[in-house]
Amino acid sequence: MYTEEYEDYEYEAEVYEPTGDPRLDAENERYPGYGSAPQYAQYTMPDVIKKFIIYFREMVNSGKLYEIQNVYENTVNPTLWNIHSVLNVLYSLVDKSNINQQLEAYAKGEDPDTVAGEFGRRPLYKMLGYFSLVGLLRLHSLLGDFYQAVKVLENMELNKKTLYSRVPACQISTYYYVGFAYLMMRRYADAIRTFSHILLYVQRTKPLYQAKTYQNDQACRFSGRKVNQTFISILYTQINKQTEKMYVLLSVSLVLHPQRIDESLQAILREKPHAERIMRMQKGELQEFENAFAFASPKFLSPVPPPVDAPPADHRREPFQQLAKVFMDEVQQQLTLPTIRSYLRLYTTMPVAKMAAFLEMPETDFRTHLLCFKHKMKNVVWTKGTSGLDGELQSGSEVDFYIDGGMIHIADTKVARRYESEQTEQDLAREVQRADVVCLVYAVDDNHSLQQITERWLPLLQSLRPTSKEEGGSQSGEVVSAVPIILVGNKSDLLEQGNMESVLPIMNHYAEIETCVECSARTLRNISEMFYYAQKAVLHPTAPLYIAEDRELTEKCKKALRRIFAICDRDGDGSLSDTELNAFQQRCFGTSLQNRALEDVRNVVRRHTNDGVGSNGLTLSGFLFLHRLFIQRGRHETTWTVLRKFGYDDNLNLSRDYLHPPCVRFTVFV
Questions:
Q1: Which end of the chain is more exposed for a tag (fewer CB within 10 A), N or C?
Q2: How high is the pLDDT of residue 10?
Q3: Which GO cellular component terms are attached (predicted)?
């Protein structure tokens, strides 16, 4: 038993051959045994209704219907097939069974038999009426009446397990047509929700469709006859094909209306060919949108036949061409919206003329695109209720704006909602404790964002600082160094001069701030420098070595450097001679210093200290001063290289390998 539409007519011909007779009574003769077993009605009725619509569609698309109409044009034949008679049959079944009244009673928790009427109480009529609603969804979609297609299901709750969900292929097909109708009505959020729901269902139940024994058992049970393996293969192929169509439609919806979806679906869309298709559509390639629509849309029908005397050569493709034009007109109107959205997310205020110049368009045209952006981002979104047409008008953009004179004022409308829904305090704490470095970004033209750095983010990061005992058995309980922080001032292209003066007090107050860099995401100025400083903060952190507010080395750093000085002072005279300095230089950096370079080092120490250079060479005071100078000038890597060459780890503890080097075993043969 097949409960899925066969998009390829050659598949359909294997199990269902149109007779060529367009009269309704001729088709009725093909189903003499349906309904004889009422217990199977819920499984056979979807097939009856589906074949009824497919038969009419294929007769129209193949041209046979119009050829036969020419024969009957001079006769009166009230049973001749046409769209009105097909709709009349389906609506008559709905009305005869009182199925809408029964569904309303179900929703209210009442007994549906009280409103079912004489025919509605019978399982056969009840199932015919119920699946006629699904058939009307399909038929109205094929005719391009998408509003009516969704409206006929207003009493059927798609998000709950109902009769149609007992026939998986019928369920998949129902969601496909509902999602496609939402897409064509520009309700992208609802289309994404519909496609995501059924694609997740297909993911969970896919092994079930692959089980051939299951398919045989179900087919025999529902139809009362044996179904061969070819039929099972066709069913599985068609489910896969319709699933692939929904992935394409989901891709289109996400390009036109970006939003987060389930991670398992997102992972599939990252694979080829979906990722390549999405990338081309995001670049604005109209041909890719056309190809996607041609592949994923159903086979549309025209509600009226072509002229009998001179039918157009492409009359069979005319419905598709008209609906494709409607779709492509909508796509063309939205081509500039992703670029506008990206600029609006970068700025809080900006002259209209300047942003128009960025987009290389006249200011008047840009204002038109801004209004288009505001209009297109407003969508009716289903929130609750039975009817799929119910919903609230919501903005699909994370930014809102208004134009005051020649300025655009932009506000982020979803900061709080995005933080609460996407990342809890516990999630943030876990991420910070796992992080090697944190980049705090603020806008150089927005004092409020800089205020948030000091009032919210820096105190929050300090409260999340991990603590642990020192390695090596120390019981001091010393606090481990905080995660290094890089302050990043964005939008520097909006200011003629830097704004570092307002940041320096913050850097002096918080020792964990490694540095501050101003950059521009638009012009890419200093972006690579930001990542360089972040990498440097991880490999060569400042906090274990230096106290910024005191402008002095930490006690632990001084202790380590004193030990290194003592090791290098081989003669024990309290100073490093040129020979000892070169030995130190060779051990740490693999090279020696020339006499002039040694003299330059001593001159720098003499200018800044009174006791840094003695009669025999560089003293301990001068050695400590040199490392403090390296750190103050941003050359942390020099001091860290020295410390690591003498066995110190990132916490300035002697590493276990240095204290207990592995023994080398060797054998002596005598």
A1: C
A2: 33
A3: eukaryotic translation initiation factor 3 complex; mitochondrial outer membrane
